[in-house]
Amino acid sequence: MADVQMADPMDVDVEVQASDASAKYFEDKLDQARDLETKDSAQAIKAYKDIILNMPQDQDDPQAKFREKAIYALGDHLVNKGLAQEISTLSKDLRPLFADLPKAKTAKLVRHLIDLLAKTSNSTALQIEMCKDCIKWCTGEKRTFLRHRVETRLAALYLHEMKYQDSLELLTRLLSEVKKLDDKLLLVEIHLIECRIHYAVQNLPKAKAG
C-alpha cells in the first residue's frame, strides 16, 4: 500500500499566515482609497485602479474579492463626482480582466456600470455610445447573454431619445434571437419597450395587442 503524504502542519500554517497578511494588505489599501475620496478625488481613483489592476488574476484566490470591491467602490465614487466619461472608460479598462471572470459576474459588472452612468446628469448620449461599444465587444467575445441585455438597454435609450425607428429595428432583430433561446423574462422586457414605442407614436392598436 502506498504511503499517504500528509501535509506538514508548519507549511499549512505558513500558507494561512501569508493569506491573512495578503488580505490585511488589500483591506488596508481599500481603506486608504476610501479615505482619499473626500480629500483628493484623483488620488482616490488612482488608488482604486491600483487595487483593480494589480490583483491576482486567479478567481480562486481568496484575495480576488478585493478587486471586485474596489470596482464597485470606484464606480460609486465616479458617480458621486459626476465623472460620466470616467465610468465609460472604466468599462473598457476592465475588459482584459473579464477573461478570468465567470461570464455571469462579468455581465453583472458591466450592467452595473451602465446603471451607474445613467445616474449622472445629461449622460444619455454617452450611455448610447457605451452600449454600442459594449455590444461590439460582446459580439467579438461571443457574450450573447450580455449582448442581448445591453441591446435591450440600447433600445430603451433610443426610445427615450425618440429614435423610434432605430429602437424598433433593434428590437425586431433582437426578438428573433431571444425567441429561439426562450428567455421569457427578456422577452417580456422587449415587448414592454415595443408597447411604449407604439404608444409614443400613437399607434394604440399595436400597443394594446402587445
Automatic annotation (TrEMBL):
Residue ranges of every copy of the 26S proteasome regulatory subunit Rpn6 N-terminal domain listed in the record: 33-149
Q: Which domain of life is it from?
A: Eukaryota
Q: What is this protein called?
A: 26S proteasome regulatory subunit Rpn6 N-terminal domain-containing protein
Please tell me the species this chain comes from: Polarella glacialis (Dinoflagellate)
